[in-house]
Amino acid sequence: MRISEVKIIHYRAPLREAFTTSFGTMKVRDTVLIMLGDEEGYTGWGEAPVDNGPWYNPETVATAIHVIKDYIVPALRNKEIRHPCVLRGLLSRIRGHNMAKAGVEFALWDLYAKKLGKPLYKIIGGVRKRVEAGLSIGVIGDMERLLKSVAAGLEKGYRRIKIKIKPGWDVLPVKTIRREYGDIPLQVDANAAYTLHDLPVFRELDKFDLLMIEQPLHYDDLYMHSILQQNIDTPICLDESIENIYDALAGYKLGSYRVINIKPARVGGLCETLAIHWFAYQHNIPVWIGGLLETGIGRAFQIAAATLPNIRYPNDISESSRFYVEEIVEPPWKLSSDGTYIVPEKPGIGVEVREDIIIKHAEKVLSYSF
Ligand code: OSB
Ligand code: MG
Questions:
Q1: pLDDT, position 4
Q2: DSSP string, 292-330
Q3: Tens digits of per-residue pLDDT, 257-281?
Q4: What is the position in ligand 1's atom list of the atom closest to the CA of 189?
Q5: Is the pTM of this model over 0.70?
Q6: Please, which residues bridge with residue 329 across strands?
Q7: Is 207 among the residues known to form the active site?
Q8: Residue from 15, 16, 21 whose mutation best tests the ligand 1 pocket (most atoms within 8 A of CB)
Q9: How far is the CA of 5 from the centre of ligand 2 (A)?
Q10: CATH topology of domain 3-117+351-369
Q11: What is the per-residue pLDDT across 56-73, written as a single tens digit (0 to 9) for each?
Q12: Where in the chain is the domain with CATH 3.30.390.10?
């Protein structure tokens, strides 16, 4: 592939429902979409699912656009790229900025798969025709409303429920859900809101047979998590702390986790996703695919990643209609009544990107041809 056309788009869409985590509330989705075109006229789309501020990780819309425009695009110019993972070498001088790198790498994967005329999931070694979805429910703070959301999620068929927790909103919602809905597959996500001083909270949570506790401690930490894991039975799942294969290896050696939530964008793309996935497979560590309220474009890469063999829990992939009034892919992602998505068999990401809708909500479009 020789890239001859690039579009970098700041896409901004209101969310149907606000999403609250221990680090903030998102009401509008600001994200960066990337289109790459090659000399033969093929195109590919990607998404860097950053936020409008450095809340989940250090990246923002502005940093992603800056890094893509000023460092990544120049590195692609006049290069014959034989495989999407070649990008890692081309970008090896750029430290960090995993989501910016992932957005561009995703677009290369879509383009590459389209040129080969094959669905993306097959090219990365995926083995599933359907992938399981779990529902992630934000910090709601009102028990009635929380229970209604859980009921609605179960009704839709989601295969497990995850609730966001933060200090002061943890044991009680879990206890209430267990009381009302019994033995459903349930897990919690703290988004790094606790410290080891909160061990008593985790000991309480330990009584509720949760599938896992996601990212309880600091977003950069591996050591404290290893201490916590020694003191509780519920498996710790790391999200924010795992940015690459080195973190996965160090955390494994330390005993910091028993499950990994791989977000393809957080780790810099599908190539690193594959590295972590196969590392975990070798060490018999279950993984699943996490989400960042991606638009339909980002969801396509989550779905492809979720077809890999070592995905052993439901993935955070909610339906398009949960958050978005207008979806930018056709057909939109729709859950089957059994709580799975059918993996598209068409070439590339397998869904059509609606540029007409993207343009309506585009704050900024940068276009380059060379
Ligand atoms: O930690 O998993 C997380 C959403 C925004 C920021 C962080 C997280 C989440 C989710 C994903 O829980 C929800 C989804 O994309 O369906
Ligand atoms: Mg998480």
A1: 97
A2: ----HHHHHHHHHHTTSTTB-S-EE---HHHHBSS-SEE
A3: 999 999 999 999 999 999 999 999 9
A4: 1
A5: yes
A6: 353
A7: no
A8: 21
A9: 34
A10: Enolase-like; domain 1 (3.30.390)
A11: 999 999 999 999 999 999
A12: 3-117+351-369
